[in-house]
Every structure is written in C-alpha cells, then in structure tokens.
Amino acid sequence: MDALAKGVKGQTNGGRNRVTGPFGNTFSAHVSQTDDQSDEPQRKRRFIGSAFGRIRGEQRDMSYDDYEEPVRKPTIQSSVIATTREVKPRTQALEEQKNDKKSLARNKRMFGMILGTLQKFQNEESTRKDTQSQKRVEIEKKLDEKAEEERTQLRKERRELFLVRREKEAQIRCIEHKMQRVEIA
C-alpha cells in the first residue's frame, strides 16, 4: 500500500487495488496482505502508456514508488550570426561578368535552353488548341447535321399528314356527294 501513501489515489476491492497514476491512468493491481516493513525489497512496478503516447514521444516508464517530476533540461536559443558581405554596385558586377568568358558562355547556354523550353511549350499549346478547335468544329458539324435531319424529318411528316388529310377530306366529300344522291332519289 506504499503506492497509496505516495499520493496516488486508490480504492481497495477485496485484495485488488484500483490505482490512479499521475497522468490520470487507472490500473488494477493485486495488493499483498503483508506488512510494509518486511525485509523483502518491494518490486518496482512499471506501467507503459498507450501506443499513441509512444508515438508522441511521451516517456511513461516510471515506477509506482517514484512519482517525481521528470528532470527537464534547459533549452538554449539558437542564434544566427550574419556575416557582412561586400556588396558591389550593379554596374560593376555587370562589367565583371562581361569580361568572364566562361560565365558568359554558360549564361548564353542557359538562356538558349530556357527559350527552347518556352518555344516547346508554345508549340504544344498551339497544337493542343488546334486539336481542341478541330474537335469543337467536328462536334458543331455533327450537331448541325442532326438538326438538319430533324428538320427534313419534320417536313416529311408534315407532308404525309397533309396528304392523309386531303385524302380524308376527299373521302368525306365523296360520301357527302353519295348521300345527296340518295336523298334526291
């Protein structure tokens, strides 16, 4: 029961002890019935935190008998010391670059590579736009063809309906003419 004497809250439950650790963790431990003043040294009991505690880097490997605050090392602030550089005027730097043939050749190569890359991207963009415009034209052409087909289909149906109507009207006139003959006779 030495753990309880050190300031850890606990409840006994028939030989079992409910112990709350300094971090709020509760554990169930078996309590021995022997005196605290026996000649045997007490075993240190260790608890291991959760897996997430190990991931976060928390150290939870403490004994029940030793509930002291962990020793914190003092932190040291880092400082960056800026060295002074001699800054040349722009005109002087340009003059030095003009005289250096090696750097001038390198600069020309780099500029040529950049221009080549830019032209390559421009060509790809123009071909992409061309293919997109061709696809757009093809789609518009198909839509126009469908619209024209629908119009011709509607005209054809209208003509057929008109012819059917004329035939029906002619039949009606014929029947009316026959009825007039029957009434006269």
Automatic annotation (TrEMBL):
A biological-process GO annotation: RNA splicing
Keywords: Coiled coil, mRNA processing, mRNA splicing, Nucleus, Transcription, Transcription regulation
Locations listed in the record: Nucleus
Keyword ATP-binding: no
Biased segments, Polar residues type: 23-35
Region (Disordered): 1-79
Keyword Aminoacyl-tRNA synthetase recorded: no
Pfam families: Pinin_SDK_memA (PF04696)
Residue stretches in coiled coil: 129-185
Signal peptide: none
Xref: InterPro entries: Pinin, Pinin_SDK_MemA
PANTHER family: PININ, PINN
Record-stated family: Belongs to the pinin family.
Protein name per UniProt: Pinin/SDK/MemA protein domain-containing protein
